[in-house]
Amino acid sequence: MKRLVLITAVLLAAAGQKARAQQPVPVPISITSEQAVHYRTINVNGINIFYREAGPKNGPVILLMHGFPTSSFMFRNLIPMLSNKFHVIAPDLPGFGFSDFPSREKYQYTFENLANTMQGFIEQMSLKHFAIYIFDYGAPVGLRLALHNPEKITGIITQNGNAYKEGLLDWANGLVQAFWADGSQKNRDAVRKFFLVDATNFQYRHGVSDQTLIAPETVLLDQHLMDRPDNIEMQLDLLRDYRTNIELYPRFHEYFRKYKPKILAVWGSNDPYFAPAGAEAYKKDDSNTTVKFYNTGHFALETNVNEIGTDVYNFLSNL
């Protein structure tokens, strides 16, 4: 009898364990409908602009401006970290990501024109006040928006978004500078190699100590879009026009001195394009600047999103 009781107890215990194993495991973190990322398109002066949007509609707005050669996809891991409290909006610039890519005959690819389109975007979206996150090409576009809308800017996060000559590195051994000075076909062809897959890989991987942190789909998506017909010609137009951003640096500095926006510089210290001195330089004109460095390369969000996301969240919470 004792043996029968023991066997029955063992069988009941096993059955209980099986039942518990079949029960659904609760998910520790839930995403509300407000936090879910929505993928939308809005028409701005005849151009369809794709954007990612998440967070409470009545929350403080943060506008994320991507750089070259990527898109709002670069913010895919940051957006969920901010969207429980902030209204996050991340558009793709014309010719980038999933926004329209109008022909060069119909659309002039200059930084001033990109900023004009983004001005139309913020007006269409009825953005009254917003912080702005700028990176790479998104920096000269975003800072132009700040010049045109100083009353709307609540704060600036610059992730390797340069605005000072101290930050410029000659990564191309003078080829880009020669192209800026003279847009001849010879000089144009000399920098064409910087739009090939090896160069895209370099951007993501240079200065990164743990290469396994680089998601391969980032390079694949960027290069796939880069290889679209006529895209490299468009990119060459923008690269030549980059010299106009440097000419605007004094106006950016004047804006910093006059309006003293709160600035958080989150900088990959091993960036081959924009040196750490470019981050520190913001302090010269704006005493409300905080600088944080991370031991990584140009695309710092690919490797250090947890640290950067925490720093950005805290910064935005104190605006």
Number of continuous helical runs? 13
Rounded to the nearest angstrom, the radius of gyration is 24 Å
Percent strand equals: 15-25%
Q: What pattern of helices and strands is seen along the backbone?
A: HEEEHEHEHEHHHHHHEHHEH
Number of E-state strands: 8
What characterizes the major β-sheet? 8 strands, mixed
Helix proportion of residues, in percent? 40-55%
CATH architecture of the domain at 38-172 and 245-317: 3-Layer(aba) Sandwich
Which descriptors would you attach to this protein?
eight-stranded mixed sheet, 43% helix, disordered N terminus, 319 residues, Rossmann fold, alpha/beta
State the gist of this model.
The protein has 319 residues and is of the alpha/beta class. It has 13 helices and eight strands.
Task: Please tell me about this protein's structure.
By secondary structure, this protein is an alpha/beta fold. It has a domain at 38-172 and 245-317: 3-Layer(aba) Sandwich (Rossmann fold). The chain has helices at residues 2-22, 79-82, 111-124, 138-148, 175-181, 185-190, 197-205, 216-226, 231-241, 243-259, 276-280, 282-285, 301-317, and strands at 38-44, 47-54, 61-65, 87-91, 130-135, 153-159, 263-268, 289-294. Strand 1 (38-44) and strand 2 (47-54) form a beta hairpin. Residues 1-29 have low confidence and may be disordered.
